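Sequence decides. Our protein:
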Amino acid sequence: MSAYPESFRWTVGTPDADQADVTDEVMERAPRQAAIAFSNHFPSASRRFHALRRKDEILAMVAHELRGPLTPMQLASYLIRRASADRPEVLRSVDMIDRQLTQITRLAEDLMDATRVDRGVLRVSKVPIDLVAVLAAPLTAAALSAAQRGQILTVQIADRGTTH
């Protein structure tokens, strides 16, 4: 978020509500308004609705702002990887940076999905996945950790043609 009011402006809304401009000041007002709304033991439905709507607006802004710096960081990681192809110690660090960037990207997408649920626009699709590809990174990390302790990690995965 910027320290300067009006430094960015974008529109949020739900299909049932009017569009509203959102600026930096929402980040300052929303927590105070939410605290007031929830401090009352019996808040009106309108107050609860507005407090929840503010929360959703904040989540959407955080997700949007979180995604912004990721692209330049991914580009920097790529450039460092290319410039350091002959330095394995640097490549290990770049691998760690890439894993963390991927995790932050997933978190930003999860925040966006949370706001899509409330607006009724989240779509969930089932797709087949390659279990070996999903487990490769965590198992590699576990194997490296085990090796540092003088242990051997062995994983056996059933043949891909076998179904249970």
Notes: The chain has one domain: 10-148.
